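User: structure tokens for this one?
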Amino acid sequence: MAEQGREFDVVVIGGGAVGENVADRAGRTGLSVALVEDALVGGECSYWACMPSKALLRPGAALAAARGVPGAAAAVTGDVDVAAAFARRDVVTHQWDDSSQVDWVESTGITLLRGRARFTGERALTIDGPDGSVQVTARHAVIVATGSAAVVPRIEGLAELPPWTSREATSAQQVPARLAVLGGGVVGVEMATAFADFGSAVTLLVRGDRLLTNAEPFAGEAVAAALRELGVTVLFGTEAQSVRRESDGVHLSTGAGADVVVDEVLVAAGRRPRTADLGLETLGLEPGKPLTVDDALQVTGADGGWLFAVGDVSGRTATTHQGKYDARVVGDVIAARFDPRSSADDSPDGATAGDRSLSADDERAAAPWSRYRATADVAAVPQVVFTRPEVAYVGLSEEAAREKGLDVRVIGYDLENVAGATVLAEDYAGRAQIVVDEARGVIVGATFVGPEVAEMLHAATVAIVGEVPLDRLWHAVPSYPTVSEVWLRLLETAGL
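Assistant:
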């Protein structure tokens, strides 16, 4: 039964971390906002990706760190307690209960609509929920924040298996004795690390000749070597041609001799935007494809300036933190562009300083790096891979910079030669590298590989976003003895 229609100023489709941020930000000037979610509020990151995966990886990392320090190593007498690790993961995911997230949404004044949304026309949606259908209209804007789903390759027998994706891996209650992982990207190498820590015999099948293809080659090489030290079998130039389940396990035929026989198969072969069942055809857009957007996150293929897309669904971003950055941008764009106060008084009584800073005129005239444009999506996207060693990078790789026509110089330094590294661990090893645009004398890319380097990445992100000249960066004195002293060594290597 269809419920009588409802109307809001703004409708956000997708209640994950990105959608929550859009909804919160868009309502800052008094717009009414509805948030539509058909699963758990908090989305992929909270329940099946960032949070549970890092909870699973942390015990092994902590044990490895302790074993690397004389005086602490003797206290480590066992391996990862898998049951305790799973229990901690369950706490981090709130037992897959979204009530605390729902409480937050309701506390902000956002209206939560449970159900699956489909477009029926311009600014018009049908929400099919547990209590029937409701027609919803947005007066001003609709933002699509439906995220992405794991791709299952068309390999004979794979879909029928069925395989694990990142969801099954991060919510697993049992550890398979033998696990095959298809794919050498972030999900593949992180889950290979976690399940190797848990005692699985892991085989990693990689179509190409390197891991982490978006990072510098030395990063993938370091991770491959570390995985092999953990006992993972890493097979490059290898892909499953067919999959079948037999009495002794799952057989993966690779065309390279004997089958790979395992108990479970984890597919980590990339993700695709969740746009297939949104009714996009009613808007003249192609279902199943990313929603192409400009730097204000407005969909370029839709008329009227009312449709926006943010996060994985746009094809611009593939991390929660970058999606939330986009959410803050588009939320401010919408709050300013459709400010309900603007027709009467740009600064009404009771408006806060933060409210008054949102200006429709400013938004219309926005330039790159303003709060109304997601410039960092093309210049300074940070990524951390929580393997051992950790890999952290931001901005352009050397290859990407040269493809853009930049005249770059690459400067690297081995982290084990920094005093702080010798304090952190007896056998600390790693490398830092920066990519410098010679014409401007600024850093356009940086990569760190080594234990706990994730915490070093933000300094590089600030340097790239701020376009800090190297001769000014030289005055940013790193504390001693820390691994961050590598910044001084990199600049000295650059000739400063």
